[in-house]
Amino acid sequence: MSTTTRETTITADPAAPTVRITREFDAPVANVFRAHVEPDLVKRWLGPRGLTMEIDRFDVVTGGSYRYTHRDDDGAYTFYGSFHEVRTDERIVQTFTFEGFPDSVTLETMTFVDLGDGRTRLEGLSLFESTDARDAMIASGMEIGVNEGYEKLDELLAG
Amino acid sequence: MSTTTRETTITADPAAPTVRITREFDAPVANVFRAHVEPDLVKRWLGPRGLTMEIDRFDVVTGGSYRYTHRDDDGAYTFYGSFHEVRTDERIVQTFTFEGFPDSVTLETMTFVDLGDGRTRLEGLSLFESTDARDAMIASGMEIGVNEGYEKLDELLAG
């Protein structure tokens, strides 16, 4: 099913409440970045397989914000946040909350690294309020959503 | 000079890259909250004494953003961020960056606690990317700005 041979590396720092996610893509940095900022592209890959994504707002600019709902037969899951800073083809810093647990907020930094030869490394850093909150997110099956989402992004970038 | 008898408590967590700031005010929670969201009030107290504050934008709503410049005879210091969530009289979650070090972003949560009898406790939590970043902020003299700002807020609330 998947067209990727890439591995996603997910690392929980023992000394700080962070998660680092690193993933390479066989596509130029401009294409990987565009797939993160254009709502019509984002909804084709973000999140695990088997869910639809409805976007209320998705304004990827410095000072912008977003809100979207993932839906499957079992229910609906809404997420929202704001964009602290957006640097084209370089970096996106945003907040992130699952609306079901609105008091738990993470700060996410995505760095887009041009590897040359039309390849890109995406480096994600998620900052949690506590190690407990970080460990709960990992235990919730975050890894599946990340891996399946990036497989869909591979397919989109190859298409 | 100061009209306050309140103490500000600033605590650096040894186990996580956070700073907690706790301060009580002799004013109802609605007044303390309003002093955080109305730009004309904010500019009268935010930051250390001896600086003027120019606001480019200050839209304290969920998904809003801000940018302002503190200025004195020595120079200008610009700060910006986005508002992740604003709950009236309860909670503000925002990002924060000094434009001179744009790669260093903190996530700040302010909780407004109604103590009854027209008194309010403000509980602030700042989350840094690393303990080094947190310690650098503390070493930069953050405490002076916080204390002088809250003394000015006391004066504003009493006025």
Question: Descriptors for this entry?
Answer:
4 helices; homodimer; Alpha-D-Glucose-1,6-Bisphosphate, Chain A, domain 4; ASHA1/2-like_C (chains A, B); 8 strands; START-like_dom_sf (chains A, B); eight-stranded antiparallel sheet; alpha+beta; globular; 159 residues; SRPBCC family protein (chains A, B)
- Which sequence of SSEs, written as H and E, runs from N to C of chain A? EEHHEEEEEEHH
What do we call the CATH homologous superfamily of chain A? START domain
Distance N to C terminus of chain A? 14 Å
Please give the CATH class of chain A: Alpha Beta
Question: What quaternary form is this?
Answer: homodimer
Mean pLDDT of chain A: 92
**What structural class results from the helix and strand content of chain A?**
alpha+beta
Largest interface: A-B, 29 and 29 residues
The total count of strands of chain A amounts to: 8
Q: What fraction, in percent, of the residue positions of chain A are helical?
A: 10-25%
Morphology call of chain A? globular
Major sheet of chain A: 8 strands, antiparallel
Note poorly predicted spans of chain A.
none
Question: Helix segment count of chain A?
Answer: 4
Radius of gyration of chain A over alpha carbons? 15 Å
Strand content of chain A: 35-45%
Protein name (chains A, B): SRPBCC family protein
Domain Activator of Hsp90 ATPase homologue 1/2-like C-terminal (chains A, B): 26-157
Pfam family, one (chains A, B): AHSA1
InterPro entries (chains A, B): ASHA1/2-like_C, START-like_dom_sf
